Amino acid sequence: MPLPYVLLSAAVSLDGYLDDTGPERLLLSSPADFDRVDEVRASVDAILVGAGTIRADNPRLLVNSAERRAARTAAGKPEYPLKVTVSGSGDLDPAAKFWHTGGDKVVYTTDKGAERARAVGLAADIVALGDDLDWLRLLADLRDRGVERLMVEGGGTIHTQLLQQGLADELQLVLAPLFVGDPAAPRLFGPGGYQPGRLRLVETRRIEDVVLMRYEPTAPGTGAAPNAADRHWLRLACELAELCPPSETAFSVGAVVVAADGTELARGHSREADDPVVHAEEAALAKLAPDDPRLPTATIYSSLEPCAHRSSRPTPCARLILGSGVRRVVTAWREPNTFVTEADGTGVLTSAGAVVVELPEYEDRAKAPNRHLLK
Ligand SMILES: NC(=O)c1ccc[n+]([C@@H]2O[C@H](COP(=O)([O-])OP(=O)(O)OC[C@H]3O[C@@H](n4cnc5c(N)ncnc54)[C@H](OP(=O)(O)O)[C@@H]3O)[C@@H](O)[C@H]2O)c1
User: Fold this and answer.
1) pLDDT tens for residues 313-366?
2) Is the beta carbon of 61 within 6 A of some atom in ligand 1?
3) Which domains does the chain have, with CATH numbers?
4) Whose alpha carbon is nearest atom 45 of ligand 1?
5) Ligand 1 nearest atom to the CA of residue 18, by list position
6) Three-state SS at 253
């Protein structure tokens, strides 16, 4: 099972603040946008906020609409999403509304924080993650609890970490038409290392006087660790595989070459442009100059492991990739023995020093246009 899909949700002022420094929570969204947030909450399995937000805002984090709650129950889900918080210190007020409203709650904390949280008798499952809090372990634990979609509602410390660590699949940002102007107020994103290059804008929506913008990260991961952008690009490769002219004698595969800053360099699919034998990776790489300086740090996404042997042309795709300079490959599925035995493109690539990352959660999508070959 993949890690949960992580959706960051926040509202900011025109000058990029999440709140002011007054005692009351600053209302940035409009009524219709609060209703949209309610709808998003109703669609997820868990909602996470940092301990700082519990201390500052004392939120309840409920699905307010009775119809939406009824729809969740009718679909066999709990009435409310799981409520999750993160605290290093374990310094959490047991009287906060977070613990006394909605459904189940879980606190992820350190070993020391767990002692403190247990001592005050929080009405929650308290999970100690060691000396430090590791987001991957937290997400894996949520996955094991059945969480497929996680909505993160701040604050800035949490959003910053998830984005910087490449764990956020989507950012839903609402821009409110007001200024805060106080440098002591909390900002949405803090300093640090973000992905280079530009995120992908996937939607803008006017909601009364605020604007919702939805972004996806684009920069591939580095080395063997996949990030959220890797999953988006591999999903695109699987969509490209669906475009292939059908064949009884070759797989349908999609491929995308992506620069380290998240720029798409080229894409291709099997048998494209009336070439009956071209492979996806071959088609994509052929669209790039061989001396393109972005290739050595690029990642190639291929819905199927690049081939190690082929009869249609002299050079298999694993060798074409190595020849191009690309040293990172992300794929969904190893080539079965349908047409060649022991087709080990991964072995060819890794023995030459390339990194191959396999994301088996996309295997079914990659196989979908090839079902007829897999009987
Ligand atoms: N406009 C919006 O959409 C929106 C949404 C939410 C919040 N906000 C605002 O954001 C502000 C709060 O933001 P914030 O950045 O101060 O707090 P936050 O992100 O909600 O929570 C930060 C706290 O979470 C815990 N934490 C975070 N990362 C951790 C890690 N890696 N390991 C261990 N613990 C970790 C720590 O708790 P401990 O201190 O307990 O160790 C840390 O102090 C408030 O003013 C709130 O109103 C605005």
Assistant:
1) 999 999 999 999 999 999 999 999 888 888 899 999 999 999 999 999 999 999
2) no
3) 5-216 (3.40.430.10), 228-373 (3.40.140.10)
4) 19
5) 1
6) coil
